[in-house]
Design a protein that fits this description.
alpha/beta, Rossmann fold, formyl-coa transferase, domain 3, six-stranded parallel β-sheet, three-stranded antiparallel β-sheet, 18 helices, elongated, EC 2.8.3.-, CoA-Trfase_III_dom3_sf, CoA-Trfase_fam_III
């Protein structure tokens, strides 16, 4: 195995992705990153709507190029009889199918789990929706923003004296995509571990709900409420019950993050910011005591950081082994030695709207296997770039048949 041509854990697995936007495509990206052949089915002419999200110039957004890397793009019209027939034909030759349509959509089109199971009784069917495939809200549409609110996440983001806010990425979709990829791999492993024993359709159907994906990441939100009646509230840049841990301003207009909430760390932290009185204060020896006086601690820390530049403060804190770090922008990440040492920024020439393709860095593959990120094979493909290849190699269609399908799809 070499870094340029590594063997990947999912080599030999074929995935059919009927996904749009972020959730199912994120699952597909993760599977593709680790070797699966992911065939992404897109609608005629426009393709996945993500192609136009945050499109600043050119024909395809960097968001699409990122989330759909290492995949093959084919164009089929799922609203046509032939498009649906081809989906079933492809599913018969795949190990996993990913989809994130509104529940009931595949069934309405005649390509639901029963039809998929009929053509491939070993197929893992991974479904992502707002609220899951069952329950009173199953048929209700919803994007990640709604799911993040219903999952308890939105209520905790922001300052206590302002309405809840959203984080700057579609975290609900991405977490659901992670669960979908994990669920798919679990089902594949179960199939392998029970060689010779066919799994029931119910065991091969992975049902991922956006709101449940978020709710599952809320740590002890629910048991704290049920056990103690605790209602968590927004606390800005802090974390409920943990102090001192926050962002603090420096005198060069930047801010840094310092997490000095461990009992032993707190002692040397306060010594470092020249407040031995706080280090010795009996009431501040436990986290509960520090949380009760969080405003006082944050004021003392902020007074110290405000006397230093970002780099000065971080150097002093690092020398004292106090966990801290800068608040990075995209420009900082691109230049960072640690990211680059682990191949976490990988460059490709892509269409940016300029006269010729330009070099653009893309985030590497996580988790690392070995000592650095596996190489990305290619960024998200052009619309329908692999239609002819897939129809020929996977389905064995003739050139004439493929010409007809492509012509009818494009018309």
């Amino acid at each position: 195995m070499t870094q340029d041509n590594p063997t990947r854990p999912l080599d030999g697995i074929r995935v059919l992705e009927l996904g749009n936007y972020i959730a199912a495509p994120t699952a597909g990206r993760l599977l593709a990153d680790f070797g699966a052949e992911v065939i992404k089915v897109e609608r005629p002419r426009t393709g996945d709507e993500l192609r136009n999200w945050r499109l600043y110039s050119g024909s395809t957004s960097m968001l699409y190029r990122t989330i759909n890397r290492n995949k093959k793009s084919i164009v089929l019209d799922l609203r046509s009889d032939e498009g649906r027939r081809l989906v079933l034909d492809l599913a018969a030759n795949c190990d996993v199918l990913l989809e994130n349509f509104r529940p009931g959509t595949l069934e309405k089109w005649g390509i639901g789990p029963e039809q998929l199971n009929a053509v491939n009784p070993d197929l893992v069917i991974t479904r992502i929706s707002a609220f899951g495939q069952t329950g009173p809200l199953a048929e209700r549409p919803g994007f990640a923003a709604v799911a993040e609110a219903l999952g308890g996440f939105r209520e905790l983001v922001g300052d206590p004296d302002r309405p809840p806010v959203r984080v700057g990425v579609s975290i609900g979709d991405s977490i659901a995509g992670l669960y979908a990829a994990f669920g798919s791999v679990m089902a594949l492993y179960q199939k392998q571990s029970r060689a010779g024993e066919r799994l029931a359709l119910s065991q091969r159907t992975i049902d991922v709900a956006l709101n449940e994906s978020i709710m599952s990441m809320m740590e002890s939100l629910i048991p704290d409420y049920l056990a103690y009646g605790v209602k968590r509230e927004r606390v800005g840049g802090r974390m409920e019950g943990i102090a001192p841990s926050n962002a603090y301003p420096c005198n060069d207009g930047t801010s840094i993050i310092i997490s000095g909430n461990g009992d032993a760390i707190f002692q040397r932290y306060m010594e470092t910011i020249e407040r031995p009185d706080l280090a010795a204060d009996a009431d501040l020896q436990t986290n509960a005591g520090r949380w009760a006086r969080r405003d006082e601690l944050d004021a003392a820390i902020g007074a110290w950081t405000s006397r230093h530049t970002r780099d000065e403060a971080l150097r002093i804190l690092d020398d004292a082994h106090v966990p801290s770090g800068p608040i990075y922008t995209a420009a900082d990440i691109v230049e960072d030695e640690q990211y680059n040492a682990r191949n976490m920024i990988q460059t490709f020439d892509v269409d940016t709207g300029a006269e010729s393709p330009q070099p653009v860095g893309f985030p590497g593959i996580v988790p690392v296997i070995g000592d650095k990120s596996l190489p990305i094979d290619h960024v998200g493909p052009d619309l329908g770039e692999h239609t002819r290849d897939v129809l020929a190699t996977v389905l064995g269609l003739s050139g004439a048949e493929i010409d007809r399908i492509v012509t009818e799809t494009e018309s």
